[in-house]
Amino acid sequence: xxxxxxxxxTVGRQSKETELKKFALGRGLSVAAGLFLVAxxxxxxxxxxxxxxxxAAPARTLTAATVTGVxxxxxxxxxxxxxxxxxxxxxxxxxxxxxxxxxxSAGAPLGEEANCIAVAVYHEARGESLEGQLAVARVIMNRxxxxxxxxxxxxxxxxxxQFSFVNPRSGRMPGVDEGSVSWRRALGVTRLxxxxxxxxxxxxxxxxxxxxxxxxxGRRLQRxxxxxxxxxxxx
Length: 235
Hints:
Elements: H1 13-41, H2 43-46, H3 83-92, H4 97-103, H5 112-125, H6 130-146, H7 153-158, H8 181-194, E1 205-210, E2 222-227, E3 230-234
Antiparallel strand pairs: 1-3, 2-3
Helix pairs in contact: 4-8, 5-6, 5-8, 6-8
């Protein structure tokens, strides 16, 4: 085969590999730009955040032996970290509880059982510190896991005469102001609680009461701690 001036045109192995590498580099830059735009459009990741997740494996070098036909650079798929994994990483890097609650105040809608915890946190402890709200959520979860109370979170919350905001006869719970800061915090606290992402009261802590009352059962239990206006107990 000859060129326009009669000089032979030779496509050697080295030139082929050079072209393939250029092509792969261009595809890689396009993928990186696309991932950046997706991340920028996500409200949960738009603000500068510490990098969290699994580090992708380095891309393989393209050679004639590994490419047949047109080269197709495939970006590595990195699974999103769980809330527990991510929150643990953020805590180790200095994120306080209020920052974690704010981060997880938005996200996928809670299921029915988790929503019962959020409603309880909202009505029982929205005037308390975030630590106090988290402790209330943990008591509900502890009760459901204890074998001494109903086995689901909603059944624990709706058990007659246990939580004062619940109608003891119908089990009905009052509504919440879904546009309020208090509700968003309750959602963040609940997501952290149900993922066991933040340390709170121990798993055998099943009771609490406000410090302005003195129920007789409190004298039979071991006091764990007081967080804000609530005193927590274990048996």
